[in-house]
Amino acid sequence: MNANDYWLIAAFFILVLAPAPWLGRYLYRAMEGERTWLTPVFRPIEQLCYRAAGIDRDREQSWTYSLALLGLTLASLLGLIATLMLQGQLPLNPQRLPGLEWPLALNTAVSFVTNTNWQAYSGEAQLSYFSQMLGLGVQNFLSPAVGLAVLVVLCRALFRRNAGEVGNFWVDVTRAVLYGLLPFSVILALLLVWQGVPQSLADYVQVVTLQGGEQSIPLGPAASQIAIKQLGTNGGGFFGVNSAHPFENPTAWSNLLEVASILLLPAALIFMFGHYVRDLRQSRAILACMLVLFTLGLGTSLFAEHQANPAFVGIAVEQTGPLEGKESRLGIAASALWATVTSAASNGSVNAMHDSFSPLGGMVPMFNMMLGEIVFGGVGAGLYGMLLFVLVTVFLAGLMIGRTPEYLGKKLEAREVRLLVASLLVMPVGVLVLAALGVSLPGPAASISNPGPHGLSQILYAYTSGTGNNGSAFAGFGAGTTYHNLMIALAMLLGRFGFILPVLAIAGSLAAKNRAPLDANSFPTHGPLFVTLLTLVILLVGGLTFLPALALGPLAEHFVLLQGF
C-alpha cells in the first residue's frame, strides 16, 4: 500500500463518520414530523401527498402496518414486472429495446422491490430509459424507504409503553423519501455530473474507432440513478459492469464520493436510534461493534489482495498483488475497500470483479453477507438486523447470569425469543438449502464455470447475495437461466420478508409492554463488555452456521493456491 491508499481509507472514514451524529438527529426529527431545515421546502409537498392519497397522518396503525407494507410491495412488484415486459411499447426507448422475458422480468422486479438489485441483465443493452427511471429508479427510493420505516417502528416500540400502535406506514415511507433520500440524492447526482457521469435522454452515440470499426457509446440518465443506488444501498448499476464502468465512476473523486455514500445513511441511522431511545450510549456501542467487524473484514481483504500470487514465485516479475479484475485506475486498495463496503451494506455495486479476488479476499464480502448484512447494512435493514442480534445477545446474557433478559427496560419473553430464532434461520435456509439444490441438480449446476472449490464459491456467493439482499455476484456464475432466476428470486423474497415480518411482530409485542426503569442491577448494554459479547455472538452464529461451506469453498481454494496451483 502507498500513501494514496492510506489517504483514501482515511477520507472514507471521515466522510462516513463525521456527519453521522448530525444526520442521525436530523433523520429522527424528520421521521417524527418535527421541524428541520428542509421543512419549509418539503412540508407542503408532504401534505399534498397525504391529501392526494387520502391519508390521515395522525392516525397510527397496529397490525395493519404490516398489511400496508405488503400491499405496497405487491403493487410495486406487479407494476415493475409489467413495465419491464412491455418496455418495447413504452416511451423513452430510443434504442427500441424489446421487453424482457417473464422469468428475467420477475427476477429483476423482485430484486429491486426487495432492495437487492441483483442484475441478471445488462442495463445499457436490455433496458430503456423509461424502465431505468420510472421502473428501477422509483424502486430505488421505495425499497430503502420501507427498510427505514421498519427500523423506525422497532425504535418506537423499544421506547413506548403499553402502546397498541407503532406509527403510520404511509407517513413513514413518505417522510423517508422526502426528507431522507431525495435531497441527498440530488446533491450527490449533481456532484457526479460535475465529475463527468452522464445525465441525458439522448440516443446512444455511434462512433468510428481508430481501427475503422463502428461502436455504440451508451448514454442515459445515469447520474440520478447512481446517486440513489448508492445512498439507498441499492447497488443496481445503470451500466452492466456497474461502478467499474468509466461512465458510472469516471474519477478518483467520484469513486470516493460513491463508496462513502454507501454507508452515509446506515451510519447516521445508528445515531437516529439513540435519539429514539433517549440514550446515545446505545448508538456508540452498536457503532463500535460494527466498526470492529468492518475493520476485521477490510484488514483481511487488504492483506489478501496485496499478496503476490504463489504461482508466480520464481518468475522475474515484480508483483505487489494480483491485478486481474481490479480497478487498475485506482489501485488494489480502492477495489478491496469497495468490496468490503458494498457487502457490509446491502448495496451490491462493484468497481472490481469479486470473482477475480484471491480466495480470502473473495471470502470477506461473502462472510459479510452471511452475517445478514448487519455490518452497517442497508438503509434501515442493517440496523434492525443488528438489533435482532442485540436481543439475542441480551437473551444469552440473561441465561448466563440467571435473570430474565431485558433490553432498554423491555423484557424478552417466549414469543420474542421464538421470533428471534425464526429470523436466525433465514440466512441458512436461503443460502445453504437453495445452494445445495443448485449444485445437486445437473441443469442448474452447469451454471458453475469452475469445477474446483472456486465453483462452489460461485454458487454459494450467488445465493448468499440473493438471501442477504445484496446483489453483487461472482462474475463467473451463469445466473441467467430460468431455474436460477426463479430460485434467486425466492431467496431474495425470503431474505427480505423473513426478517421484516419477525421484526414487525417483535416490535408490536414490545410496544405493548411496560418499560421498566433501569437500575444498578440492570445488565448494561452500552459498555466494552457488551460490545465484546455482541461481537462474539455475531461471529459465532455466522461461523458455526457457514464455516463448513466456507471450508469447502474459499478456504479450500486458499490452501490450494498456497501450493502454487
Automatic annotation (TrEMBL):
SUBUNIT field: The system is composed of three essential subunits: KdpA, KdpB and KdpC.
Function: Part of the high-affinity ATP-driven potassium transport (or Kdp) system, which catalyzes the hydrolysis of ATP coupled with the electrogenic transport of potassium into the cytoplasm. This subunit binds the extracellular potassium ions and delivers the ions to the membrane domain of KdpB through an intramembrane tunnel.
GO (cellular component) term, any one: plasma membrane
Membrane-spanning ranges: 6-28, 67-86, 136-155, 176-197, 252-273, 285-304, 374-399, 419-441, 486-508, 529-552
The name this protein goes by in its record: Potassium-transporting ATPase potassium-binding subunit
InterPro entries: KdpA (IPR004623)
Entry's localization field: Cell membrane
Organism annotation: Stutzerimonas stutzeri (Pseudomonas stutzeri)
NCBIfam families per UniProt: kdpA
PANTHER family: POTASSIUM-TRANSPORTING ATPASE A CHAIN (PTHR30607), POTASSIUM-TRANSPORTING ATPASE POTASSIUM-BINDING SUBUNIT (PTHR30607:SF2)
Family, per entry: Belongs to the KdpA family.
Keywords in alphabetical order: Cell membrane, Ion transport, Membrane, Potassium, Potassium transport, Transmembrane, Transmembrane helix, Transport
Main location: membrane
Membrane topology annotation: Multi-pass membrane protein
GO function terms (MF aspect): P-type potassium transmembrane transporter activity; potassium ion binding
Lineage top rank: taxon: Bacteria
